Amino acid sequence: MRFLATLIACVITLAAPCSGAGLDLSTDKIEPAIPDVSMAEGIFGGTDLSVERDEAGVPGWTVRRDGAVIGHIGSTWEIAGSVGYSGRPLDVLVAIAPDARITGARLMQHNEPVLTLGISDEDIAAYVNGFEGYDLTQPRDVALANTPGLPDVISRATVSTGVIRDGILRTARTLAIGRGILAEAGGIDRLAYAPGDWQTLIASRSLSEMRIDMNEAAEKLAGAKVPVTPGPGDFLHLWTGLIDPPTVGQNLLGQQGYTAAIGSLGPGETMLIVISSGLHSHRGTDWRRTGRFDRIAIVQGAARVTPGEDSYRMVKKLAIGGAPEVKEISLFRLPSEIDPMQSFRVEVTAARPTETGEVAFTMSVDYRLPDAYRVAAPPDPAPLWREIWKEKRAATGIVAAMLAVLTLILFAQEWITRRPKLWLLGRVGFLSTTLFVLGWGLNGQLSVVQVVAFLHSLLTGFRWETFLIEPVIFLLWSFTALGMLFWGRGVYCGWLCPFGALQELTNLAARRLGVKQIAVPQAVHERLWVIKYTLFVGILALSFYSMHDALVLAEAEPFKTAISLRMIRAWPYVLYVLILIGAGLFIERFFCRYLCPLGAGIAIPAKLKIFDWLKRRPQCGRECRLCETKCTVGAIDPLGRINANECVLCLRCQVIMNDNAVCPVLKRRARAATEATT
Question: Rounded to whole angstroms, how far apart are CA atoms 123 and 75?
């Protein structure tokens, strides 16, 4: 089916008008919306703002006032890759402030069917504006309803508004993390505190320890003008580690010293303490002249940081009990390029001049933040479609049950059609469930818009997530696609289409009330089929030029008005539906027969139908044409053949064929058998 769909789309693409630039199908080439100064002023307030594109490779824009950063703006299409149910980009510009709050959002581009024609711009603007003030430090949640601080989804537009919500939150958090406003998932536990002494910190590996004695140093620095004298004692005894966890920093420095040290940190920065005793100084004295602590380096992967004077803070005395006598205590502010959650190495270099130059060696100690001081990274929020499926468990269960019952009906059709009353009761009952439960209750109405979205996705990069975000529709399409291989298009059109059910039930009521049916001549009937196929091709071709215009043309389907919006719409749309239903009172399934672009769209791949479940006899169309006259959609031609493109699989012809009291062939056989026995 996918191959056929791709082939159809390619043919339509070649046939479509290509004079406009709008025919470019690659979503990768669609540029994100660009914020301007007036938009920034509307979101952040005030005047004299500047909006500057961030450096190459970093998505987003920075907003400044008098040179000071007051916020950032990002595009959901550029950052989160938000794609709506139409399969096309859904772009919202999201603004955040330095305090990790969303300051505003603006919907810039969408092609959502419901948003385009079913809901006012004011409703959309109110929903998007409802994100203003949301605190990004709150626990991540993409649930569609009852999330504190977030606006409620728009009724009957849960999928589109759910995609908007997901894109806004993901974009805002990505912006905040990228600008150092919000910490990465997981990190250092900066809240928990437990009192302890020096031995406690050493035993918990809160500080890494390194010791080089005089003998080793003398060997390494042999040849120096001023040699190191071998013997007992330490050349360098060093302890180092991060003091960000309160259990480490507050115990080492005391509450006041710890607060002063940590308070100087910027976004993404951490504080390293280096404590040493022995002959060698880890600081030296050259830093007073050069401004750089050349003796010490922090190494992590390809990153190598040499502290500068501006990152240094001296500590005169440790506040912790049980600490040894030490010579120097230094605090160094580490930049964000050193990841505190990964191991790193602290190196201290010792050098002495020689007659010909210099001799040096490097002492190093590895440090890893203990697990006790780590905050476990919260799991990434589940994809939006999983959350929606979880919330709609009841709906998916109902649909699955309906599909199971329909499968049983179709597989047991011979047994059922031998019992006309059971068939009629079962069909009316199922169609009523389709209309009231599946249609008006669960909004389970398929549309040609989804066919167009599927074909576009094949050409622009197929993503299952686009179709999984509406579980009821996904289950219906999956069953319809599989059912077309077994039974043809009628598996949906005849049993699962709520508007089709509405037409058949109203026509049944009309016939019971004595409304005379109009028999459309076969020649006229077959020529009217052209309308729905032309309409389908027109919608598909137009979508490659303008998706918006294609959605307008797709209003030829009355499904949105009659089923999705339950007739609560402007009067021209309601009048159109009433005209179609009125015509259907005299010609059963008038819309299905001649106007439905969805039926035309799924009739094409239904040509791949493998099995022929509907039985015919050699006498059909020759000796008997009763089924032809009784077929309410005119799917049987004068020769007795069933046109699978038009058949809605109502099984009425099978009931007639199996009824000894109705089928002329069976009646003749029964009469002949009676005469033979007498």
Answer: 21
